[in-house]
């Protein structure tokens, strides 16, 4: 690829709008997900599946049922012989009716918080036997992570679900349960990796909301404002968050992940902000200055030294990503552009996103995993110089859709489709980034990178090649 010329210029970032209607997944899609998951269980030679979830690791359970544990743990049992059985604690009992799936609910009070009543539920072993488990039943467990060679000879026996669940399964069946999490989460064709048109529309809704919140933060930053006050500019609308809100300025930014505090931001501070909700995340980083004259003398080449090469790498990533592209190709672009130790890029330069912020990543050295229609991805390349240049960061959500899926999205969700097309035009006409037809930017900040945060209307763009 011919090297691009990029500059820091005044850019009119349009108001791409805000969704008028929230997109929701309906019951028939959840039923189809359960059916397809069961087909995967049978193909694996298993008799029963247990899906475990808790407040932090909710996504697999929510994907299958629409129910996410709020205060407690929960588990779903599938055996192919009747309705799924959902085990919930005291506080999950009423909330579990949010699921549009025909579920058999079972109260298992040890899932409840400590000190609450535990006198009304059956022992776990009896619940399992009543659900059809017996001596010789082969059980697969889906929790939130599966393992490879790092786990030794038998990675399928490494589980993240609580020991008491695993031990009781072993006691009832006489054999160890196996990890089946890859049925949903493997990066090649996991069931949560290839999204339906309605799921992508949900993600577009989420990405629009959270990127609008990020825009309000970026345009509201001022010296003397506390980090709390800066985050208040987001005016988050209450969508469930996939990670803690992150905003830090000054020396604390070296930690990368802190939540905001009462520290007052100062002119010249490095600043990092990240906001994530189910299905989307935005992150930006830069300096709290108007221009390079307000930077320390040693880093007044911040844009030339770090931001420009970073933006060129991001452009090449954006222009190359598409159907049939392998994760290894995307990895090599970033390695070639930003592989020097100065840039400090160590995490996967791009990953899959869903209700949880990170499902898996097909983007790694040597990956032959081809990107497919229906995938939702984070454009997520994070330099970490470890020095005064701090970092620059541009993280947004995109989706890949073949012609059939694009037509379906346009027909079913025309408002979302209109925003997507407007973002594509902006990226091409104003930022100079040429996207393949299948690349759908979901964020209202798509590829918009302002390095000097007291002048957020000036951002990076292509000026030639």
Report on the architecture of this protein.
It is a single chain. This protein has 465 residues and is of the alpha+beta class. The chain has 2 domains: 5-22 and 191-464, Creatinase/methionine aminopeptidase superfamily (Creatine Amidinohydrolase, Alpha-Beta Complex); 45-179, 3-Layer(aba) Sandwich (Creatine Amidinohydrolase, Chain A, domain 1). It is 29% helix and 16% strand. The strands form 3 sheets. Strands 8, 9, 10, 11, 12, 13 and 14 form a 7-stranded antiparallel β-sheet that branches. Helix 9 packs antiparallel against helix 10 (327-338). The longest helix is centred in the middle third of the chain and has 24 residues, at 197-220. The radius of gyration is 24 Å and the shape is globular. The protein starts with a strand and ends with a strand.
Describe the structure in brief.
With 465 residues, the chain is an alpha+beta fold.
Class per helix and strand makeup? alpha+beta
The CATH topology annotation of the largest domain reads as Creatine Amidinohydrolase
What is the CATH first-level class name of the largest domain? Alpha Beta
Can you tell me the CATH architecture of the largest domain?
Answer: Alpha-Beta Complex
